[in-house]
Amino acid sequence: MSSLVTLSEFIMERQADFPYASGDLSRLLADIGIASKIINHQVNKAGLQDILGAEGTTNVQGESQMKLDVFSDHALFNAVKWGGQVCGVASEENETYHAFDLEHCRKAKYVILFDPLDGSSNIDVNVSIGTIFSIFRRRSSVGDLANVNDFLQRGCDQVAAGYVIYGSSTMLVYTTGHGVNGFTLEPSIGEFCLSHPDMKIPEDGVIYSINEGNLNSCGAGVQAYVSWCKEADKKTSRPYTGRYIGSLVADFHRNLIKGGVYMYPGTLKAPDGKLRLQYECNPLAFIVEQAGGKASDGRGRILDIQPRSLHQRVPLFIGSRNMVERVEAMIRQHELTEA
Ligand code: P6P
Fold first, then answer.
1. What is the pLDDT of residues 136-163, one digit of tens each?
2. Closest CA to 305 of 197, 147, 154, 159
3. Which of 274, 276, 278, 318 should be mutated for ligand 1, with most atoms under 8 A from CB?
4. Is 207-338 assigned to CATH 3.40.190.80?
5. 7-196 architecture in CATH?
6. Are strands 86-91 and 98-99 parallel, antiparallel or unpaired?
7. Mind spelling out the 3-state secondary structure of 217-260?
8. Cα 281 to middle of ligand 1, angstroms
9. Which of 52, 113, 165, 185 could disulfide-link to 90, CB 3.0 to 4.6 Å?
10. Which pLDDT does position 287 carry in this prediction?
């Protein structure tokens, strides 16, 4: 039986990937692992406790906050605050960033952005949900308070990114720019153990993920791509199939393993789509590129976008390289004919 490699052991082993590593990033990733286990414990028993149902408050997106959302936000916030490796945090659940005015945090080198519980509308129906995080080196001076510029960096400058999927099993998947590795929580020992080393997304796939309820208000290029997927099934018996869970982390994770493309395009009512650049699109884009895939806003690379605001939304086309490139080509082709 091969020996189990825990997340902590793996992080320490891989610290050598960074010649000047002081261990701070390793400790930060370990702090996130601890927070994920705390969240997982609550998610797993959500149906048994009065932790379901809206907290009664709404987040900055105007979405009603599920109690687990708020719990998860607090778990991550406190884990990184007392872990002392970040000088500030930004979360989907809060309007602005938070700079930790604590001596050990002011000296920290990193900031973290996260969506503490993405897909939370699925909590009550027991569908997989997830945590997504993105880590940058601070721009502000060590010793100062974090400032807004620390949180408005392009995705290509991330030092680490990852997600946790609370599904049939709980997995943590992350990258530090040296490949993508997946860890499955072993409940009997309470440790994330390496289960998916060096993850690579298939260059092509047959799964397309989109909310077809929005399709008529999407651009002609997106509509043409989805029609192509369906026609392909009839004419060439290519077995394209639609799979849409309505939980970004779950859809992304399935496509990462099986191949596929997830699309959340802009619509007439919401030209920038629904997903947030800084703590949903950028971290998953970093992961998918490290796994050999592609992430685009339909015209260009997600990781090259200069954020203008903390909760900025962008259209997202992410997954197998060939599939994303086909969607981009059809968008370009229809823009040219519409021009
Ligand atoms: P729609 C969940 O709210 C989320 O942010 C993603 O997890 C998910 O993929 C998407 O929105 C679902 O949005 O509009 O299809 O319900």
1. 999 999 999 999 999 999 999 999 999 9
2. 154
3. 274
4. yes
5. 2-Layer Sandwich (3.30)
6. antiparallel
7. HCCHHHHHHHHHHHHHHHHCCCCCEECCCCCHHHHHHHHHHHCC
8. 12
9. 113
10. 98
